[in-house]
Amino acid sequence: MRAKTNMAARAFALLRHNKLHYSLTTTSRRMTSSNVAPASRLEGIDKNVWIEFTTLASQHNAVNLGQGFPDFSPPNYVKEVLSKVVVSGDQMMNQYTRGFGHPRLVENISKLFGPLLGVDVDPYKEVLVTVGAYGSLFCSIMAFVQPGDEVIIIEPFFDCYQPMVKLAGGTPRFIPLRATSSGGSSRDWKLDPDELKLMFNDKTKAIVLNTPNNPLGKVYSRDELTMIAELCIEHDCLCISDEVYEWLLYEGCTHTRIGSLPGMWERTITIGSAGKTFSVTGWKIGWSIGPSNLMKHLHTVSQNSIYNCPTPIQEAVAQGLEHEMSRFGTEDCYFKSLPRELEVKRDHLASILREVGMEPILPQGGYFILADASKLKVDLSDSAGSGENYDYRLVKWITRNKQVATIPNSAFYSDEHKDIAEKYIRFCFCKKDETIDKMEKIFKEWAKTM
Ligand code: PMP
Ligand code: GLN
Question: 343-346 contacts: CB < 8 A, separation 24 or more?
Fold first, then answer.
């Protein structure tokens, strides 16, 4: 009571001292509420797994193996380039740049990805720079999907695909990867070709593909991509290919870009992320690449929404790509040295998970591991009536009681297939050894009590 009175007194003193009018307006705003209804397109998309679980992790000061961001430093030269651009660069580096992408960046994207996609990419007509890969996904979906259209989404899928399709008025149609044999490697998780064929019809506008996949780590083989490509061509539909983990490949796996397959450049938007490429997720620069007749529609969405992305960050990413192109294919190239380091972390984390009674699905790419946690002996009776899936309840329990944050796998599935998802939880391994060691200690102590 006394604390409240003190707070009120302090607030009042502030009010008198400062801008009385402004503060009063603010206060009265808090005391009333309007009945302005949100657009119906927001219905059912208000929950967000990252907001919920990142908040929970910080509330419990948990060892964070949840959200996918490296807690180690990006390469020093990448940081230095950005600081030089801002401090000692041309003053125009602090002003607006070209709307669809800073010239030096789009030119380097075209130089790097043209040969990988097997086409000459026009940097000014066939590239769009966006706010992260999120921005590219949004522009692609908004540019093409409208009410009446169906979009095929393969499960598990990066969670934003579903709400973006809904925002555009489209209907998501889900098809799960299914475990063949033991399911102990992401390689064992496959699409059933007959089931996939049945998903395509005359309403199908697009399919969203993600290779290497988040959260499973599956890297699609050329044969699997060819099967998908043939269906896209037969049904004249678009392929939105999210390839943000394109460099993070293990066990000699190779990344095939579906846009490079015969007949696919014409119908594919290939999406990348500087955040994943250079371990700078906070820089939020992404890009889309595709033929000009498709890209002009992404340009339209972009010019009427975000307009342009931060100039100094685009300049720094451009210089980063230039540097990596100059040593492309060598062991020093960050596109090779990063996965080499991550593979060791992957194997370390997988062995910890096995030791404490979980069964990991070993990923071929990306920086996440799904682990079957259904055999953990945890009393979840407190949350039994919550209506939440097992993995949601388990992840919350572990975060609160063991201070280790992870992500529930059913966040990456539609309601119709949550049953396939809910025994798995996702761990992120792009973390310092020290972070993984802390998690190891906690889990090993816990295992002794189970
Ligand atoms: N796609 C996938 C598969 C992702 O995991 C992420 C998460 N970063 C994104 C897109 C979004 O990337 P960005 O941070 O560049 O917006
Ligand atoms: N892509 C990252 C992940 O999967 C982060 C996503 C986000 O924070 N929205 O963890």
Answer: 343/250, 343/251, 345/429, 345/430, 345/431, 345/433, 345/436, 346/250, 346/429
**174 - beta bridge partners?**
153
Q: Write out the H or E segment, with its range, that includes residue 57.
A: helix 49-59
Q: What is the mean pLDDT of residues 249-261?
A: 96
Round to whole Å and give the CA distance between 176 and 414.
Answer: 9
Q: Is 132 in the pocket of ligand 1 (CB under 6 A)?
A: yes
**pLDDT tens digit string along 53-107?**
999 999 999 999 999 999 999 999 999 999 999 998 899 999 999 999 999 999 9
The rounded Å distance from CA 263 to ligand 2 centre is: 32
Domain positions in the chain? 49-73+333-448, 76-325
In this structure, whether the domain defined by 76-325 belongs to CATH 3.40.640.10 is answered with yes
Give the model confidence (pLDDT) of 271-286 as tens digits. Answer: 999 999 999 999 999 9
Q: Are residues 165 and 139 in contact, defined by beta-carbon separation less than 8 angstroms?
A: no
Ligand with the closest atom to the CA of 428: 2
In this prediction the pTM is 0.93
Over residues 218-236, mean pLDDT: 98
CATH no. for 49-73+333-448: 3.90.1150.10
State the distance from the centre of ligand 2 to the C-alpha of 209, rounded, in angstroms: 17
Integer Cα distance of 84 and 246 in angstroms: 28
Return the best residue to mutate from 48, 49, 67 for the ligand 2 pocket (most ligand atoms within 8 A of CB): 67
68 CA from centroid of ligand 2 (Å) = 5
Q: Is the pLDDT of residue 154 over 70?
A: yes
- CA nearest to 404, candidates 68, 63, 69: 63
Most confident of 7-16, 61-70, 176-185: 61-70
How far does the centroid of ligand 2 lie from the alpha carbon of residue 1, in Å?
A: 42
Contact criterion met (CB below 8 Å) for 207 and 237: yes
